[in-house]
Design goal:
Blueprint: H1 6-19, E1 23-26, H2 42-62, E2 68-71, H3 84-94, E3 101-105, H4 106-109, H5 121-124, E4 126-130, H6 141-147, E5 151-152, E6 165-168, H7 177-186
Length: about 200
């Protein structure tokens, strides 16, 4: 979420439509182990997320949806790299019996084998992969082999607490935070790419 953009919000909407979760959490990263340090401060990213998710929460409730939208700052309180496995383990302690679905972009999913304890992720949660235009599933390699037996339809996620990988059908938004940072640095127009 550096910066948060409409693709993040749209992915949450798609997940809400397909998965009907009780809670949708947005978790800003403190110290990203696989990326450069965030350009925006933690306080700035929290503020951006508050502004971005407020309309989403209002729309969900106005439409009669019961999903709760939350900004979860647990990683910002940790003085260590933000490893997904640690965050999922923390969520699992908070929700021991609930099905947990961790949303990840396809760009991250294809590099999953570089993540800390990546093969243990599905022991604690499901992975829900958000596809962008031009993204393809890995067709070979460690991630491909690991995920093959775990793929399922979204409807199957509620049948267990963890262990599956689901590809989320999503609206074709070809945007990323890194691309937005480049556009902003060049002074390009980013209208309609960032939440209002």
């Amino acid at each position: 979420f550096d910066p948060v953009h409409v693709g993040h919000i749209r992915a949450a909407i798609e997940a809400q439509i397909v998965l009907q979760p009780e809670v949708i959490k947005f978790l800003p990263c403190h110290i990203p182990p696989h990326k450069d340090e965030p350009t925006a401060s933690a306080a700035q990213r929290v503020e951006m997320l508050h502004m971005a998710i407020a309309p989403l929460e209002a729309r969900l409730h106005a439409g009669g949806e019961s999903s709760i939208v939350e900004l979860d700052q647990r990683e910002l309180a940790w003085d260590k790299p933000s490893y997904t496995i640690d965050t999922i383990a923390s969520l699992r302690r908070d929700y021991p019996d609930m099905s947990i679905a961790w949303l990840v972009g396809m760009d991250s999913f294809v590099t999953l084998s570089r993540w800390h304890q990546w093969q243990a992720l599905c022991e604690q949660a499901h992975l829900v992969v958000v596809r962008r235009p031009g993204d393809d599933l890995p067709k070979s390699g460690l991630v491909h082999e690991w995920a093959q037996a775990k793929y399922c339809r979204a409807s199957a996620l509620v049948q267990s607490r963890s262990g599956r990988v689901c590809i989320l059908p999503s609206a074709p938004l070809d945007i990323s935070s890194s691309r937005l940072r480049q556009m902003l640095a060049r002074g390009d127009n980013v209208d309609y790419l960032l939440p209002e």
